[in-house]
Amino acid sequence: MSTLTIGASRGRLELREFFRRKEAVVFTFALPAFILVLLASVFNGNVVGLGVSMSQLFTASMVGAGILSTSFITLGVGVATDREDGTLKRLRGTPMPAAAYFLGKLVLVAVASLAEVVLLVVVGVGLYDVELPTDPARWLTFAWVFVLGVVSSSLLGIAASTVAKSARSAPAVMNLPFIGLQFISGVFINPIIALPAAMVTVASFFPLKWIAQGMRSVFLPDAATALEMAGSWEHGMTALVLGAWCVVGLGLCLATFRWTNA
């Protein structure tokens, strides 16, 4: 069997195991949607002169945060757990290539991330009148931002799992940078131009700011570019930064990944 075939089989197993853990499923999918409802309820109204509501801004930005949540955190915690309970050690002793294990994890986060995006968009459309784009070019933008966002965040999650000394400490290790980045990347505080320029500069070095900005370019009208720090969607820079993090993330995985806690 090829590595891709084994990886697909491993992905199906990962999905079955994930969806059997009902508490984890509810927390993973419900938390971003719950935060979206809270933010959109507290900060309501429209942005003057742009025809954009605050709820639309938060929906688009939370879609980006949802992608990072279901890839970075899910993989960081999942790999740390597999390392501690001996799953990785046992798999290393089987004929299954290591690449197939990681492909299986990527299948899991890709499906989970897409499901998270669908849930957030349904909440945005159902509760806050967010309009879905009709231009195929916008859906093409959604596709490449989604793929680059999932891959870069997943690789960083695998690399960050090494920092966690145990499965119990993994959620804290993963959530600390995630929560901090949400504040400085234009997710919790919108529009992003309301943030100090120094904070946005720091956020610009990490994927979340660009994933959220890419999703705003999909779900918001072009007039909303006035709310971005550069006054444009910066698709080229978004692709460059996310692509660079895919390369950097892969390098970090190769340099830091370990099969056991010993």
Strand order of the largest sheet: 1-2
- Tally of DSSP β-strands: 2
Structural class per helix/strand content?
Answer: mainly alpha
Average predicted local confidence, pLDDT: 88
* Element pattern in H and E: HHEEHHHHHHHH
Estimated radius of gyration: 18 Å
State the domain count: 1
Largest pleated sheet = 2 strands, antiparallel
Low-confidence stretches: none
Measured as a percent range, the helix fraction is over 70%
General form: elongated
How many helices? 10
Distance between the termini: 31 Å
Beta-strand proportion: under 5%
Task: Give the topology, please.
Layout: H1 3-20, H2 22-42, E1 46-47, E2 52-53, H3 54-84, H4 87-92, H5 98-128, H6 136-161, H7 170-184, H8 197-203, H9 207-219, H10 235-256
Antiparallel strand pairs: 1-2
Helix pairs in contact: 1-5, 2-3, 2-5, 3-5, 3-6, 3-7, 3-9, 5-6, 6-9, 6-10, 9-10
